[in-house]
Structures are given as C-alpha cells and as structure tokens.
Amino acid sequence: MSEPAINLPPEPSGATTTPQPSSAASIFRGPNGIRAGWRVLIFLAIVAGLVAVVNLAVWVVLHFFLHRPPQLQIASALSPTTAVLSDGAIFVFTAIAALIMTRIEHRKWGEYGLPARFAFRQHFWLGSLAGFLAISSSLFAIFALHGFHLTGLAIHGKTLLTATTAWTAAFVVVGLGEEFAFRGYLQFTLTTGMGFWPAAILLSALFGLAHAANPGESKFGLLSVVCFGLLFCFFLRRTGNLWWAVGFHAGWDWGQTFFYGVSDSGLAPYHNLFNSSFSGPAWLTGGSVGPEASIFTPLTLLVVGILFSRFYRENHYQPLGEA
Question: What pTM does this model have?
C-alpha cells in the first residue's frame, strides 16, 4: 500500500534565500572581517604614507627655507639624539597607523601589545633589570676569558648627569619603537592569520635584516638579533603584552652602550660612562659588532629564556578574531 503524498505549503512570496558569499568576498574577508594579510598591507601602506609625507615636508623645509639640499648619511656612532629621532619616528609612525587600524577593526589600541594600564609598571622594571644583568653577564663571561676590560670613567661632572638622563630616555624610546614596530600590531595581526610562532619567526627574521645596514655588522651579529627577537616574542607570549620586552630591550642597550661603553650592533658609543677595551678572537669579543656578536650573547639569551619560563609558566597572549 503506497504512502499518501505530502503536499508542502508554498513558500511565502517575500521569502529569500541566504546569499552565498562571492569568491572576491572570501578572498578579502573571512568570518571575522578583513583577512589578516590585507590588514597587514593596509597598516604598512599607512606607515609608508606617513613616512612619505614627513620626508616631503623635510625636503621642502631644507630646499626652500634653509636652502640646503638633503644629504643621506649613515651614522657610524650612536648618540641619544640619533636614537630618539630614528626610533622615535618609528614608534610614532607605527602607533598612528595602529590607531587608524583600531577604527577599521573596532579594537582597542592596547590590544596590539602596549596597554596603557601596564605602562612603566612591574613588567617594565623587571625587564629593565633583567636586560642590564644579561648584558653584564655576557661581558663578564668575555672578561673571564681575558677578552674584555674596563679602563676607567669616560665622563665626569655635569656631563655624567646629562648623559645618564639622555641615554636613559633614549633607550626607552628605542625599546618602544623597535618592539612595537616588530612585535606590536604586526605580531598581533599575523598571529590571527598564521599562528603565533610562525609570525614570530617571520618578524624576528625581518628584525635581523633591519639591522643589516649597520656599519660593522656581521652574520653572527644578525643571528643574535634574530635570537633577541624570538626571546622578546617569548616575553610577549607569556606576559600578554610588550612591557617586559620593552624593559629588557632598554636595559640591555643602556648597559651595553652607555654603562659599559661598547659597540651596539656595530655602532660606537657616545658620551658613555666607562671606557672599555676588547682583545681576542671575534667569536669571543664580537669583533666590530660588539658583544652582541659574541658566542656568549645567544647563550645568555637562552639562559634568560629558561629562567623566565620558570617564573612565567602560562601563556597570556591570545589575540582574538582569526580571519
């Protein structure tokens, strides 16, 4: 015996079917908005635009008002002024670009790694102390093998106070600029698209390449810079923000350049506290690069990472909104 036919009621005339996303929409947008790759390109385009505007303004001032043609010079020595101008500009450009991206992505600026509520608090000061102790340990190891010696004070009187203040402020700016540029917005956004450690490896490699133009830099020195980048990413992963990394970056550079008066990525110090001398093979002393190219720097960073992991056991960096 056959089943009776079931007649379904007709759909209302106003009913509509759910539209399927077009291929173009799937390329540019994911379930959580604009895909990570496009957001990175927008961010970099904004930064490039800001740099172009500032360069044009500088050119106009020099050419039409001061009647001096702009000259490109690569510094062979590091001073507080050059550090603030270069890394300060990097921080301002990337911070403004990230601020614009908050409007596009409907996020808070602090999500990109530098929340204001943690600014210059415990993480920053612990990182600063650890950075200074780390460079001190690396130089002590070189000293133990008769490769490094302090030869006396380099500055006295009022210069001692002004240089200490200037270098302290300068290296805070350096820490902010380089950390936010390489591990702020870009790390956050690439993490949502490709995962944390693939993004960290990519950006740490770019961090190393960014130092390749420094005079006197070496391949091993660049490898150490990559190790720094990975360690800073580890700090970010465990603490949830960049303030530990900013402090460590500032503390290491302050100790290296100002306190001990040694070269920083091939850049000679200026108005440093102590004079120092190196003797021995490049694998020990770092050669023209300074102690960052010594075999003891990556070993020191490894020890720092192990000790840090004992105190900070959980991951607190979890960007949401994967696209």
Answer: 0.88
